[in-house]
Every structure is written in structure tokens, then in C-alpha cells.
Amino acid sequence: MLKYLLVGASLLSAQDVARLELKGTRAEASRYLGSAAVKLTGDRNSDGYALVKGLRFHNGTIDLDAAGAPAPGAEAGARGFIGINFRIQADRAHWENLYIRPTNGRAADQLRRNHSTQYTSYPDWPWDRLRNETPGMYESYTDMAAGEWTHLRIVVHGTDASLFVGPADQPCLVVHDLKLGDVEGSVALWIGPGTEGYFRNLKISEK
Asked: How many folded domains does the chain comprise?
């Protein structure tokens, strides 16, 4: 049974997987490495998300544990992409996103290591545009391993966002110009192409 997915002070049980609005992904209550979790799987060529219905977020903190790895049969470029969409707009076509690439964290190639974390803003600012136009500004290195539980903390205020990974008390990635501006919106669990992802302990607090 799914037991430890927290939204504010509310505990979601297995039947509450129905509270997730799915786009391009499948969700199920699961167990992973001994913990209850939400499992997301999707398409090998596109991303997907599971939006938490009835939740609005503007400024505050999003905490969760995530474990991502390339899914069986995934393309060679799969990295286990996993993270959070936030401030999703009502049209479901615009959102902010912070995610990690777990297989990059301990890669032998230093350039791949430098691409371990990523900010994007859908649909106008995908990762490749940001990398081409402003190299190194919206991604960074941090230590992680594919398939292991990794704690993510996202702190948002106005047009600023900071990503903390693991037990670090300093962010590994800071963004000072969130592309959608100072707006509010929904929150979703997110996976990238070719990812098998697990989530637990989602907690959201607003300022």
C-alpha cells in the first residue's frame, strides 16, 4: 500500500493515486527499495507528469524523495530524468521544471557530470535552448546515483528558485529569472523520456 506521499499535512493512501491527473505517464502504488512509493512510467521518447489535483502553489518549499533510472529498453541517451513541475498553468501547457539526470552524477565524463541538474520552462525554454543560448547557467553538477533514493528540495520565491540535492545546506542550482514570472499554479511529479521513476515523501509548504 502507498503510505508516505505527503502533501502538506495530508497523507495519501493507495486509493488516492486517483488524485493524480496523468499526462503522458502511468502511475501506480508500488514499493521500491523497501519503501512505499508512487511509480511513474511513460514513453521512451517524451516526458510525462502526474499532477496533484486540487493543489495550488506560489511561493514556498517542495520536498520529496525521488529515484530515477533508465527504463528497460530505453534509448542510449536516457539518463533517468526525474523531478518536479511547479506553477503549472490552467492550460496545462506552461510550467516551470527542475529535475536531475541521475546517471550523470558519477559519469566518467566530466562534461556529463556538469549536466546533472537542470531547470527548464515549458514550452518556450527547453533544456537544449537554454544550453545553447546560455551554457552552464541553468544546469550544474551534484553527486547522485541512478536508481537510488535522492532527496530534492526546491525553494521558490517570486522569480527565484533554488534546488538542493541530498543533505546539502547550500543549493546546487539557483535560478533568478523563472521564465513564467511571479505566478502560481499546480505541482506535479515529472519523469523524462525513457525513465522509470519512483517518488515518496512529497511535502509542500507555502510561505
From this structure: 1
Give how far the C-alpha of residue 114 lies from the chain's centroid of Cα atoms, to the nearest Å.
18
**What is the CATH classification number for the domain harbouring 130?**
2.60.120.560
Q: 26-30 long-range CB contacts below 8 Å, 24 or more apart?
A: 29/1, 29/2, 30/2, 30/198
Q: What are phi and psi of 14, to 5 degrees?
A: -60, -40
- The burial of 6, by beta-carbon neighbours within 10 Å (0-12 exposed, 13-18 middle, 19 or more buried), is given as middle
How much is the pLDDT for 43? 86
- Please answer whether residues 2 and 29 qualify as being in contact, where contact means their C-beta atoms are separated by less than 8 angstroms: yes
Q: What tens digit of pLDDT does each residue of 134-177 get?
A: 999 999 999 999 999 999 999 999 999 999 999 999 999 999 99
Grid coordinates belonging to 201: 515523501
For 62, residues 6+ apart whose C-beta sits below 8 A from its C-beta are 84, 86, 152, 153, 154, 156, 187, 202, 203, 204
Helix, strand and coil in the chain, % to nearest 5 = 10, 50, 40
Q: Buried (b) or exposed (e) across 101-118, using 16+ Cβ within 10 A?
A: bbbbbeeeeeebbebbbb
Decide: residue 154, CB within 10 A, 0-12 exposed, 13-18 middle, 19+ buried.
buried
90: domain range?
5-206
Report the distance separating Cα 201 and Cα 9, nearest Å.
Answer: 11
